[in-house]
Every structure is written in C-alpha cells, then in structure tokens.
C-alpha cells in the first residue's frame, strides 16, 4: 500500500509563539496515524497571517505526495481569524457538502459549531479541509470525514477501478472476497491479547514536538548563569605577553642592567626602575610598577652575568614602545562585565569561563539512570550461557552520555518480569528525573515496559515512531519524571538515543531548542540504497573529496548488528519509499545527523 502524505497545519498566533500550546495539531496527527496505517504526516505551525498561511499551503499543494491537508484554527469570527480567506484563493474546486457534513455532525454536539466558517475544497490534487482550533473539535471533525477520505482521493485521482469498487460496496453488490479495507483502522481491541499495537506510529517531528513540550527545561542558565558578571579583572594586573625584559619605554635600546627577575605568580614589584635598567620577566608575570613595556627575549642579547651566574647586562636590540607586549588590567574581561559574551550551553564553555573568574560552581545536570531489560542478558565478563547474549546497550549508552557531557547511574539488568520492572522504575525515579531503558517495548508477551508504565500511571506520549531502526521507541512521563523506552536491538537503541533521549536531556539541562538535536549536514551518497517503507536512519562514514562530503553506508543495516556503528560518523536521513521512488541513488544529496565531533573519517 503506497503511503499517503497528510499535511497538518496549525494556524494560531499563540501556538506559533509557543509550540507546546498546540494541542489540536498533535491530536490530528495522532488520529491520522491511528486511522491510516500507510499515513505519513508533515506538520507545521503558522500565525494567523493570510500570506504565511497561503505560502505554507501552496508549498504543500505543490508537493505531489501531499494528498490531504487539514488546517486547524482561524475559522471563527474574531478579527485575526483568516483561515478561510487564505484557503479559498488556492482552491480549484470547492467541496461545500463536505463542510456541510462536518457542520451537521458538529451541530449535534454544540450549537457553537455554527460559528465556524471553515471551507473544504481541492487545490491541485490535494484535498484541503479547514477545521476549528480546539482539540475536541478537530477530533470530532476528523471522525466525521475519515471514512470518506480514501474514496475522495480515488475520485480526485480519477482512479476508476477503486471508485467503482467503492460504489459497489456502498450499494451492497460486492462479494465478500472482493471487499478490500481501503481505510485500515487499527483494531486496538480484541479477544485476549491485542495483536495490533494500540500506539499510532508518529512521525519523528511530532515526537520531537511532544518531547520538547513535556520535558521541563531548567531556567537556571537564563536566571543565573548568563547573568553572571565577573568579580575580577582578567588579567588582574598588567601582565607580560612575552618572556623577555620589562623596562621603561622612555629609555632607548642599547645596554641595560638587569635589576631583578619576575616570574608568573610573583606579586607586582614596586622597586624603582631607571631608564637604563630592566627586569627579566616571564609570560603571565606582573609588570613591575615602574615598567610600561616588554621586549621579547628574541630581540635581546646577553652581554654579561654576575659572579652567581645571574644575568647582569643585556643588549636591547629594538626600540621599546609604550605598552609593547603588555596586557593591561581587565584587557580580556573587565570586572563587573558579563562573563558570557553570547549564550553557549556547552559545559566546556560554561565551566571554564566560570573557573576563569574564580567561580567554582557545578552546573545542575539532569539526573539520568540507565537500565537494560531482558532475561537473556549477561554482563560482559560473565561466562557464556546457552540462550543468553551479552548486554551491550548499558555500556554503549553510558559511554554516549559521558561523550555528550552527562553522567548517569547505571543499574542492574532487569529480567522480563512485570512486578520487578515496576518496582525498579519506582525505585529509580526516587533518585533521577530521567530513566532510559532498553528492550521490552515491542509486541512480545514478555515486553512489559509499556504495561509497567501504564500501571504506574505514566502517560505514554509515544509508543511507536515511523522510523527505521527504532520503531517501538517509547516516551512517557509523570509529573517531572521522564522515561525513554528505547528498543532492545542495539542499533535501534543507538539511533533513538541520539535522536530523542539526547535532545531531551540537553533541553532539560537548559540548552536552546535548536541546539538540542545533533547538528545536520548535507552528504552525497557513495552508493545506491534501497528505501524502506519507513524513513531510515542509516549509519555511514564520511569521506571528504574536494570539499564535498560523501557518505558510505556501513554494511548490513539490520538493527541487531552493532558493527554498523563502527566508523559511523553520521546518520543519513533517507525518506520512506513511495510509488515514485524506491531507491536513493549514488550522488544524491541527503541530510545527515553528525554523530561525533571528528566526523570525517577520510580525506581523498
Ligand atoms: N511482532 C512484532 N515484533 C517486533 C516488532 C513489531 O513491530 N512487531 N518490532 C521489532 C522491532 S522494529 C524492534 S526494534 C524490536 C524491539 O524490541 P524490544 O524493544 O521489545 O526489545 P527486546 O524484544 O527485549 O529485544 C530485541 C532484541 O534485542 C536484544 N537485546 C535486548 N537488550 C539488549 C542489550 N541490552 N544488549 C544487547 N542486545 C539486547 C534482544 O536479545 C533481542 O534480540 O522488536 C521487534 N519485534
Ligand atoms: O525499529 Mo527496529 O529498530 O526496525 O529494528
Ligand atoms: Mg520485544
């Protein structure tokens, strides 16, 4: 079944300014994913501005694969409500009855539905429907139209065979065998254990929006760190920039008597100084009070030593100039000035700048616990046991957290046992705000993570993501406790850590939102790659050839094969296969997330 791409456009000044306030957009996305297994969703938020709404809609209409667009918001009577006015000029045909069906259904719930002015119609080959802005309203409106949508698309496509089949179904003339379920809803119910995941397969962008909306970000950087002013001058004294001789610039070049020695760490010296005298001085040492310049040792000659072997006379071969090779007091940073010229959440930057002005403060970092689940797991170092495998995830995630500057508590392996899993989660959340587990999130009857979370009254925001690897990635929260259930397959855990858990932890630590995800670059593929049904995050190593970056896929990409992370500089983002495109070709350019600072493996 080919994927259908839906667009979900939230139109609201408020949500545009604070995306975490957008409830109706994510609700629509989740309903689409639940109703259509082959759905892909692009989502965006724009303010109530006619031109911005039109520009976003036009872009989606021009994308061949976007077949249905739902807008939510801006349909009412308020002065800023302009969604219908923005939509109408883009429609080639209006579909007023579709809106009538929505309105009739909505009026059964509330007469306020009469105050919505939304329109429906076709622009290019895309069906556009304006829904109101409330979460409840979009759920109801979607419920009204969802069964009509596949047939509407067949009609827009002029897909005669499927149109006839639907007409036959409606008229009851089709045989049972010939019936196809054009709109495959997930069952979510059934006798005994449900055989279908009740969790919609959400697009990555939606999961990211959810994570940033749910995880609480510390404001300590804004409230405290960025406002820190320096209690000292740097340098706190006039400091020599060179190893050489400190003197008066009013004297000339030529021979000078060496009257003293100043090393870094010595207190500034008040001894009188004549124009034909100098002090030997080291880089970083304080200039004697009466000196105003330094001549580097390379521009001098030693003339004589005294009886103790100490330098007594030197020849200064350049003309001394005022301030030559001197850093004045406060040259680098003045007392009371802000110590951060710009905000930079890197712990390296924060901690070292604080230290440079004498402030010893450790940054509050989110507390994280790691736990591997699986009765099959052996700790590295243990003897092999039939049926068991070694736990690589705990080591990998601990190293990744350290690499990115975060610490963790690493706990024991949990066996696949529901009461034990629940007990451990409760216990861990007494100590930390993030728990990252691996394993136990897919469909097996021993996959207890989601059940444990539900029984502990966590809200599961995401139980599946439309990606490969990492589909069953689970994100849940309760109060300020956040839980990432990464899939057990080692590569799935590796990819989902980088794409979801790391940005969440950086966000909690107070990082800017744009800095939380890994940096993205463009790379050209070195070889063809067959596209998957899900968007895929392929591990690849990068070669730089004449300034262009090429990505070579690291062997078999099955999610159990940890060898694919060896030499992995980037995760190349490949789109899902579509009816038009089934492979990514060598030479094509794709975005890629940078996994490591030293991300170029080879130069050719
Ligand atoms: N019926 C279905 N089965 C599966 C689905 C599905 O949609 N329907 N999804 C598959 C996908 S995709 C993934 S990914 C995995 C994820 O499974 P779980 O998160 O439930 O993980 P487990 O079943 O516990 O283990 C999977 C695999 O990984 C090995 N593993 C687990 N932990 C570790 C560790 N710490 N170190 C090394 N290896 C580990 C484990 O032994 C299994 O081989 O589910 C698919 N199934
Ligand atoms: O998502 Mo799984 O991670 O495909 O193997
Ligand atoms: Mg499993």
UniProtKB/TrEMBL annotation:
Q: Name one GO biological process term.
A: postsynaptic neurotransmitter receptor diffusion trapping
What this chain does, per the entry, is described as: Catalyzes two steps in the biosynthesis of the molybdenum cofactor. In the first step, molybdopterin is adenylated. Subsequently, molybdate is inserted into adenylated molybdopterin and AMP is released.
What single Pfam family name could you report for this chain, choosing any that match? MoeA_C
Organism field: Drosophila pseudoobscura pseudoobscura
The pathway it acts in is: Cofactor biosynthesis; molybdopterin biosynthesis
User: InterPro entries attached here?
Assistant: MoaB/Mog-like_dom_sf, MoaB/Mog_dom, MoCF_biosynth_CS, MoeA-like, MoeA_C_domain_IV, MoeA_C_domain_IV_sf, MoeA_linker/N, MoeA_linker/N_sf
So what does this thing catalyse? adenylyl-molybdopterin + molybdate = Mo-molybdopterin + AMP + H(+); molybdopterin + ATP + H(+) = adenylyl-molybdopterin + diphosphate
Q: Which cofactor does it need?
A: Mg(2+)
**Keyword match Repeat:** no
Q: Which Gene3D superfamilies match?
A: MoaB/Mog-like domain (3.40.980.10), MoeA, C-terminal, domain IV (2.40.340.10), Molybdopterin biosynthesis moea protein, domain 2 (3.90.105.10), Molybdopterin biosynthesis moea protein, domain 3 (2.170.190.11)
The UniProt entry's sequence similarity note says: In the C-terminal section; belongs to the MoeA family.
Q: Under what name is this protein listed?
A: Molybdenum cofactor synthesis protein cinnamon
Q: Spell out the molecular function terms from Gene Ontology.
A: ATP binding; metal ion binding; molybdopterin adenylyltransferase activity; molybdopterin molybdotransferase activity
Keywords tagged on the record:
ATP-binding, Magnesium, Metal-binding, Molybdenum, Molybdenum cofactor biosynthesis, Multifunctional enzyme, Nucleotide-binding, Transferase
Stretches assigned to the MoaB/Mog domain? 7-152, 369-507
**Gene Ontology CC annotations of this record:** cytosol; dendrite; postsynaptic specialization membrane
């Amino acid at each position: 079944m080919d994927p259908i791409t839906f667009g979900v456009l939230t139109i609201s000044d408020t949500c545009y300014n604070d995306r975490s306030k957008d409830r109706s957009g994510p609700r629509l996305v989740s309903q689409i994913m639940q109703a259509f297994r082959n759905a892909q969703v692009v989502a965006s938020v724009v303010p109530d501005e006619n031109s911005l709404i039109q520009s976003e809609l036009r872009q989606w209409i021009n994308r061949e694969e976007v077949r249905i667009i739902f807008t939510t918001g801006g349909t009412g009577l308020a002065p800023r409500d302009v969604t219908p006015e923005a939509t109408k000029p883009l429609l080639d045909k209006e579909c007023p009855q579709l809106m009538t069906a929505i309105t009739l259904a909505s009026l059964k719930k509330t007469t306020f539905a009469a105050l919505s002015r939304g329109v429906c119609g076709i622009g290019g080959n895309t069906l556009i429907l304006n829904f109101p802005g409330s979460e409840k309203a979009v759920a109801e409106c979607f419920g009204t139209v969802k069964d009509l949508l596949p047939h509407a698309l067949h009609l827009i496509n002029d897909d005669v065979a499927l149109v006839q089949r639907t007409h036959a179904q409606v008229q009851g003339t089709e045989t049972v065998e010939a019936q196809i379920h054009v709109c495959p809803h997930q069952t979510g119910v059934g006798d005994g254990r449900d055989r279908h995941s009740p969790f919609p397969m959400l697009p990555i962008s939606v999961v990211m929006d959810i994570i940033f909306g749910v995880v609480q970000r510390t404001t300590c950087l804004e409230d405290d760190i960025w406002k820190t002013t320096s209690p000292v001058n740097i340098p706190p004294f006039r400091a020599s920039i060179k190893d050489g001789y400190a003197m008066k610039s009013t004297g000339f070049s030529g021979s000078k008597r060496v009257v003293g020695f100043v090393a870094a760490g010595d207190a500034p010296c008040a001894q009188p100084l004549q124009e034909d005298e100098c002090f030997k001085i080291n880089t970083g040492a304080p200039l004697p009070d009466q000196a105003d310049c330094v001549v580097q040792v390379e521009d001098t000659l030693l003339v004589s030593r005294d009886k103790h072997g100490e330098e007594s006379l030197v020849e200064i071969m350049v003309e001394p100039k005022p301030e030559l090779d001197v850093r004045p007091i406060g040259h680098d940073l003045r007392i009371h000035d802000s110590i951060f010229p710009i905000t930079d959440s890197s712990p390296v930057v924060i901690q070292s700048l604080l230290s440079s002005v004498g402030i010893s403060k450790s940054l509050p970092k989110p507390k994280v616990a790691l736990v591997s689940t699986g009765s099959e797991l052996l700790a590295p170092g243990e003897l092999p046991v039939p049926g068991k495998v070694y736990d690589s995830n705990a080591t990998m995630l601990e190293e990744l957290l350290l690499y990115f500057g975060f610490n963790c508590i690493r706990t024991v392996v949990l066996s696949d046992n529901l009461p034990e899993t629940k007990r451990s989660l409760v216990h861990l959340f007494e100590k930390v705000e993030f728990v990252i587990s691996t394993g136990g999130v897919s469909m097996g009857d021993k996959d207890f993570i989601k059940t444990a979370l539900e029984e502990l009254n966590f809200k599961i925001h995401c139980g599946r993501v439309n990606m490969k690897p990492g589909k069953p990635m689970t994100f849940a929260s309760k109060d300020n406790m956040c839980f990432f259930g990464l899939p057990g397959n080692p590569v799935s855990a590796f990819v989902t850590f980088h794409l979801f858990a790391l940005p969440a932890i950086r966000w909690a630590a107070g990082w800017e939102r744009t800095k939380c995800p890994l940096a993205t670059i463009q790379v050209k593929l070195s070889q063809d790659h067959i596209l998957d049904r899900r968007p895929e995050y392929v591990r690849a190593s990068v070669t730089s050839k004449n300034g262009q970056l090429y990505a070579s896929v690291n062997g078999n990409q099955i999610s159990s094969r940890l060898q694919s992370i060896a030499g992995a500089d980037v995760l190349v983002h490949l789109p899902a296969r579509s009816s038009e495109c089934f492979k990514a070709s060598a030479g094509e350019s794709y975005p890629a997330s940078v996994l490591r600072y030293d991300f170029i493996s080879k130069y050719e």
